Amino acid sequence: MDNSRNELLCINAVWVFVPTLCIGAFLMAGFLPPPSPSIPPVEIAKVFSPDNVMMRAGILLALLGSCIFAFPMAAIAAQLRRMEGPNSVLSNLFNVMAALTCVCNFLPCAIWLAVSYRPDILPDAKVIFIDLAWFMFIGGIWTQIPLNLIQAIGILGNKSGQEIYPRWLGYWNILLVLTFLPDILLPVFQTGPFTYSGPLGFWVPATGYFIWMWLNYGFTLRAILRQRAVARQAA
User: Fold this and answer.
1) Could you report the per-residue pLDDT of 129-138, keeping only the tens digit for each?
2) Which of 29, 37, 162, 203 gets the highest tally of CB atoms within 10 A of its CB?
3) What pTM did the predictor assign?
4) What is the rounded CA–CA span in Å between residue 178 and residue 193?
5) Rounded to an integer, what distance in angstroms lies between the CA atom of residue 126 and that of residue 35?
6) Are 191 and 38 a contacting pair, CB within 8 Å?
């Protein structure tokens, strides 16, 4: 059965997910880079105040778009199923980890909105929840790393007889996992490169993440269109 229409709908949801995340969390909320964890609690509390309407609107936009991440992941999972064959354990696991990653996108946004909801919360209390949200949003590698490894295993063990994804993308996924590992140290440092606003804690993983997203968009779109062409020829 040719299901390319639904797959195209899912993979093109990247054009909704990435802008809502970047415009909402990074531009409107001003989290590019995130506020340094070494900033005094009073200053951090001012950022997350009910009066910061632009920040709250941006986080709301990011929250609304966060679950859209599952759509392009579903399209990638469909291609993993083609590579793996009928007993598609990897694609099922990929969908589960994608759902958990959506939670890691959604919950931090909800926490930031909750922190900025009441003006009478003490700054020291606010900072605890703000840090918690960043540990999930930036440090949610425990769901992202399995996504990359599952895709790498699927690509390198491709049994379909077709090049659905280039083989080098499998190795690139493994390399990307290595760039995510410094985020293990986010709860340890408040200054330096390993914080959630530092080069190794934020900039390197974030850059790799968005490159991964757009590489998958391009190659998945190509695979779906090829699949559609073959199905139409067979019909």
Assistant:
1) 999 999 999 8
2) 29
3) 0.92
4) 16
5) 14
6) yes
